[in-house]
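Posting this for the archive.
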Amino acid sequence: MTHGVRALAAMALFTIGAGARVQAQSAAAKPVAARPLAARPLAVAPERDYLVLVASESVDRVALVRFGPTGARVERERYVGWSPMEVAGPHGVAVSPDRAFYYVTTAHGTPFGRLTKFSMVTDNAEGSVMLGHFPATAQVSPDGSLIFVVNFNLHGEMEPSDVSVVSAAEMIEIARIRTCTMPHGSRMNGDGTRHYSACMMDEELVEIDASTLTVSRHFFLTKGKEMGMSGSPPTRGANALAGHDMGGHGMEPPKPGDASCSPTWAQPSRDGARVWVACNKSSEIVEIDAKSWTLARRIPAGPGVYNLALTNDGARLIATNKRDASISVFDIRSGKELARIPTTRKVVHGIAVSDDDRYAFISVEGMGSEPGTVDVIDLRSLTKVASVEVGQQAGGIDFVRSEPTKP
């Protein structure tokens, strides 16, 4: 791929109107009810306030959203760009385990993107570090000492990229681990010993050993060819498929005969025994047994399944369906889709689950000049109970805390 073509793809991928050309395809999707509405408990107003952070990529803002008995509202916003003339593109947001800080990746920059640390109390910047090309999803390790950031890399030739590891205290990059072409998603298991990311262009899941900061295993995800292997993926993505979606970032449906996965997210279980991977192209969730490093099952999912999140009790898996303007809630034990819930707008992105597993907060990018949205899903009634507008192209989202309701 030439540099010019790659640049055009990058522009198409993260502009405000990225979803416009697939409006008709999304409208054609048919949401399904997995069980009778009468079998679900009625939604009850929350007794506490819940706070989440969401980054809006097109306006360089991070919003603190408060949801409680009176509904959802934006409590405050923080500008995270550096010039009104240049979009910095905040993509990922991650909250420290002690809730004292939050970290934001800005995908654009010269020559690379950055990770910036902010105080949760004052919103003041506490440090910044330059990473690789197009830093995207970030997660803080369970002990709060490290931040793992995937460098999605939309620049130049199609080639393997890497995962940056940053010391949270000093805001210094201590490792840059080569993984695969266009790594996406960044999630750790419960004890922080393993990190997982998906290779959008290489059909692979990559596991990093957090103690050695090296790639320990990878898993090939194409249906009928699943295979777990030791060590790093093949150099320069020998498994890469030329037909993968570059311009739509998960919005383009597969062409006839295309059995590829095009993975966009990896979510390990709390105990590290399982890893679920969103196959955006085939609209399936692949479940991998992490101990034997073998395929456990493939779960049918919504059109263009994109990001995943797990409830804290490990009982339910939540998925955003990017081509369907909906989210799905799955029962982990049976693999059954309990509900598919329409979102307020199209181009659904990320998920954050409350600490008590009562609510899921969904970021929705919107289309064209539409504002971004945060939808609130009641995980008891399996219904959407609130929605609030934020800046355009809402993407990265993370849960902060719950607290007694303000007077």
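Helices lie at 3-13, 23-27. The two ends are 57 Å apart (CA to CA).
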